[in-house]
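User: I'm preparing a small set of examples for a lab meeting where we compare how different chains pack in three dimensions. I only have the primary sequence for this one, and I'd like the structure in token form so I can line it up with the others. Please keep the answer compact; I'll paste it straight into my notes.
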Amino acid sequence: MTDSESLDSTTTSETSTERKQTIKWPIVAVALVLLTALVGLTAWVRDELATKQQQLDLEIARGLDRETAITELDEKLMKAQQSLKALEGKVSQQSLFGPPSNLAAVIDQVGESVVDIYCDSDGSGGTGFAMDIEPSLEGTSTVIVTNHHVIEACWNTNSVVEVSLGDNFAKTVTGVIFNTDEENDLALIEIDPYVKPIKEADTFARPGWWSMAVGNPYDETFEVLLDRFVSIGYIGAVYDEYFNYTSAQINQGNSGGPLVNSRGELIGINTYGVVGQRAGIWNIAVDSAILCENLLDCD
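Assistant: Understood. Below is the structure token output for the 299-residue chain.
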């Protein structure tokens, strides 16, 4: 090979190497750009995932906080309701020892259940009141409670017993004496018209309770029936749970009427009114629970 050919060969080799190097630089540059972009994309994805996770964690925390708050609120509400119920019970119990806040309303409420009873055979009679008792006779709608001695003449002679009801006792119907308890001086009468039953107290009376007797005494001076006459007093004593001694006066004609507490709930049936110089004044109402001894099946 001549010197000229050798030089040409060397020049060609150098040129080829330069070309290869020239081609590699753009490739490297592109690769660097792609790598940089990939790194940036990876970082962005990582940041996005971290942000999403934080948001998710926050939502979960909020959800748990919300549920916890609701649970705590429910517990507080339940405790408040229990406290209120206990307080209402105490207030309700205490109110039985004092007069009602609206006496007129209690009088009207009790008066709706009170009736007048008259025995045509001898002109005797007294008071009665409707109770929430299921009638036993066909064609009757209301059960009236009264004293045995009020209807005794009708019962013994099998004569008609008249029951007057409504405002001023303007309506009179014939009643049927369904059952009697002479031992406890009680009787049941059934009538056809509906009369609103009196509410019953859910506990035995206690000494000190405010009480009101309602009945229909007859004033011989003016020869007038005193429609739903009320007398007010307090329970002085309770004997054997059934016998309520009250300072509310029980006049002749009040027999068979209701003795009620300050809520207008039935305590007992006005039964005895005794006046004596030595004995003093005794007003006794037998507890309504005594009806279960011989007249009603209360099991």
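A couple of notes for your slides: Residues 1-95 form one domain. The mean pLDDT is 83.

User: Perfect, thanks.
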